[in-house]
Design goal:
Length: about 375
């Protein structure tokens, strides 16, 4: 029984990148042996085990064979006879198909170190084209490492185009697509993720609600959260609130991503031009974005607007929170105590809100 560190931890160690997760491959063992040693199995039919102390994943060396559509359409074979090289052969990129033994020796049968040095993302074998998820994974790796000079090998791009031009992408679940996209939005150059998918002919298949023009998306590379970058992407590419909602439904976006995207879409232009707004327009902006109930969203909205305006500060940064504080001082219960109710109560509240906005505009 031999245990090897594999995949991303080896790659990032050689790159001098931070290592957040470590994965291990076990050669010459069986499920019974792993259980006897105190590991817990992830799934009854999948040869991955969790270390009782570290929580890290240990997978039995395995081979795989395509048996159906999509990234789940594989049959796995794990046994004591499967070699480390056979296990590494099934991986996506050469830079992810390296291992390190207990003495620190690198096992590199597919020249991943050479591709690291030459800054190339290259597939390991033709079996790459059997898994549609790899289109998204390679695009995400490109977004992570583009700033280091990494480029995509032409032959790998050809296989990605073959996958995109088949029906394989349609078998990816929305949750899995979004998982890769969300991770890419947190990488250093998320625009590269979109560009690689465009070059692969995958954007229109994966994101039919969006009219993606990669040349317009340099703002995605600004230093911002994944939520803000997603909002900027949808602002530029969705075209309507209905398209943002349709995209959110299809990709199962978390509510925080969907809501921020809609708020930026509806309010960015007015926030950027805040000094020119009338009192009525300022009040309507606040109501449209539901800022009196949810003022915590304002910082992320401002972040997106500063990127759009290419400015470190906006006049609205200070003025809008001040106005929200003043509006919060209007108490409906006090107005009700004055005898207002029903429709008249709503009109009285709105009139006083508008008066606050007028005084704030004149200040």
């Amino acid at each position: 029984m031999q245990i090897y560190l594999v995949g991303g931890a080896v790659r990032d160690k050689l790159l001098g990148y931070p290592i957040y997760d470590r994965d291990w491959v076990v050669v010459g063992a069986s499920a019974d042996i792993m259980l006897q040693k105190g590991f817990s199995q992830v799934g009854q039919d999948f040869p991955v085990f969790i270390h009782k102390d570290t929580g890290e994943e240990y997978a039995l060396a395995r081979t795989e064979r395509k048996s159906g559509k999509g990234y789940t359409g594989f049959q796995y074979h794990a046994s004591k006879d499967v070699t480390l090289e056979e296990d590494l052969l099934r991986r996506d990129l050469t830079i992810n198909a390296m291992a390190e033994d207990s003495n620190g020796k690198i096992i590199d049968p597919f020249h991943g170190q050479q591709d690291l040095q030459q800054r190339i993302l290259r597939h390991v074998s033709p079996a790459f084209a059997e898994d549609p998820l790899r289109v998204l994974r390679v695009a995400r790796f490109a977004a992570r490492y583009a700033h280091l000079g990494f480029t995509l090998a032409p032959e790998t791009l050809t296989l990605m185009q073959q996958l995109a031009n088949s029906d394989e992408l349609s078998f990816l679940t929305p949750e899995r697509v979004w998982q890769e996209m969300q991770r890419a939005l947190g990488e250093q150059t998320p625009q590269t993720f979109i560009q690689v998918l465009e070059d692969s002919h995958a954007n229109s298949k994966l994101f039919p609600e969006l009219n993606i023009q990669p040349a317009q998306l340099t703002l995605l590379n600004a230093n911002a959260s994944a939520e803000v970058r997603c909002a900027l992407l949808l602002l530029k590419c969705a075209g309507s609130a209905e398209s943002i909602k349709a995209f959110s439904i299809r990709q199962r976006l978390p509510n925080t991503f969907r809501d921020l995207a809609l708020q930026v879409f509806r309010g960015a232009a007015d926030i950027i031009s805040y000094p020119q707004l009338s009192a009525q327009q300022k009040l309507q902006l606040i109501l449209d974005l539901d800022l009196m109930r949810r003022p915590e969203k304002l910082s992320a909205i401002f972040e997106a607007c500063r990127i759009l305006n290419a400015a470190p500060e906006l006049i609205a940064d200070q003025k809008l929170p001040e106005l929200l504080t003043q509006l919060a001082s209007i108490k409906p219960k006090k107005i009700m105590a004055e005898g207002f109710k029903g429709k008249a109560l709503g009109e009285a509240i709105r009139a006083r809100q508008l008066e606050v906005c007028r005084h704030h505009s004149d200040a």
